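User: Hello, can you help with two protein structures?

Assistant: Certainly.
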Amino acid sequence: MKPILAILILEPLIGKSNRVYEILNRKRPLTLPMIRRLHRHLGIPAEVLIAETVTR
């Protein structure tokens, strides 16, 4: 998927494009309402979205 297309799909679920970039670049965590919207609209399992990220 092209990055611009991903941003356009995620904007209604996460917020403005700068917020989407922050989430995708792990500068800001997902909030509970964001997790609920991603789960409801895209079918992403909530467990995956809630899981802590592993730092390398």
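That covers the first. Now for the second protein you mentioned:
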Amino acid sequence: MAVTETLYLVDGKPLTNGRNFGRAAGTAGQANGLNNMLPPISMIERIEIVRGPASSLYGGNALGGVINIITKKATKEWTGSFNVEYLTPDSSNKIGDNKLATNVFAQGPLIDNLLALQLNASHTKKDGGGVRPNPTATNPNATSVVNGTEAKGVGGKLILTPNDENDISAEYKYSEKKTILAEGVAETISNTTPYTKDIYTLTHDGRYGNLTMSTYYQAEETKKEGTTSNLDVIETNNVLNHQSTYALGEHILTFGGQYKTEEFKDPSQPLTKKVDRWLGAIFAEGEWSVLDDLLVTTGLRYNDDELFGGHLSPRLYGVYHLTDNWTLKGGVTTGYSQPTVSAATDGWFNNYGQGAWLGNSNLNPEESVNYEVGLHYEDKNLGLTSSAVLFQTDYKNKIVPNRICTGAANCTYNGANRNFINKYENVADAQMKGIELATSYDILENLQSGISYTYTTSEVKDGVFNKGTPQEIDLSGKTLNKTPKHMFNLTLDYQPTSKWNLWGQFNYRGKSTDYLSFDHSTDVQSETPAYHTSDLGVVYKATKDLSFKAGVYNVANKQITNADYGITLDGRRYNIAMNLKF
């Protein structure tokens, strides 16, 4: 699954609001955008991962699973931490740029056993000046200088604990991301105005015997200022969410609902200047202890929204402990994901680098049926865990980009030349399937290893782009976007003493397709070639409160540029960091 199909949460609240802005805002849900929204590392207590589709509880953005970042709870005394990290490219790496990141976190009581305060701040600056190929229709050897970026954020949270059963919190977060122009780049409103985000959250958590409850209201505004206030681009999202969990003997019931409103205003759009909608959902899930060794989970979610109406998403999953070491897992889960309101609007475009993505009012929500069966082995005495998982996902109306033109000489939209133009389309019927193998093993008490391999195939069963036009093309038999057939990862972690930790990792990613398009009559897809990277690092714990780390990423200096393949893989980079707790 793509990163856009994995739901990222912080304390159970999604980070994927603001998706209509696109990647430029750093809020779209892609990896780069998420980096600007994650809490400082010093705030994080642990990370919980839910593998596989989780749409019945979390909705359509969780088709690929859930990553929930749990932040630290309020403490009875003042504590904090400071972290600084510096990343610099190797002299032979002409793509990368220097990056400096700092963050600080502090928390403690204002009134003992009643009111606590948490504060955090972060700042990241990446220099510009790197040179990347940027071919045009008239000059295939053209290059461009890469601009830098600066991101900063602050946040505060008040936690009221009137008794052991209730926590009430009020939180505010502000973040800002702006471009730092490289030398020689002309200054314009579009490349100098920062994107800002304000998030206000009220939360109540209750614990009443066998019943736990969590309710939050979140208001979010993402904005890019125009030359005047009436030209501001603004997205607002308001979410009211409730979830309760009840322990019924050996069974666990979870139920709740969500209501959300979205509004996106962009005066620069050629047709519609404002789009909005409401979305609602109710859900229920049960974990049933059928036998001592058999746990069955059933789930059902009903989604409704202003544009696409209602839809039911059921789930059935089982876990059977064959022996103390062997476990069989498997089930069927359905997925349902509505397009963003901008993607479902004709003529609406989002800038993406030097290209544009166009909306399409004929888009339908994406549906999927996901099958999984896996065999898992664990022996704590040996320090060994292994698993083999077979999976298959059948898509209906899979949402993909159709590249309708490439090259600035041929691509013009809203009065500007574009390097490419993509349009959101549905693929009527597609399938993805494969196998995932994973093993972790304690070679020695102080030496751990991990290895994983994933084989994936995908195929469009039924799909036509540009139907009824001279560019009509049948995509049947083609692969889905960005789906490598082979992925392999190897990690080693060695702790020679209590103060030193050494680690290394090797990653291989097979070739994958980049987009579906009618640009190429013989092969409608371009390919990203196979590549591999290796990373090495060391961590030194000087005291219980002070630690240092250093690393070398992409040791072999493997570089792929967008001139060849439409992506950029950065070269060798060096990293140093310090963390201080107080």
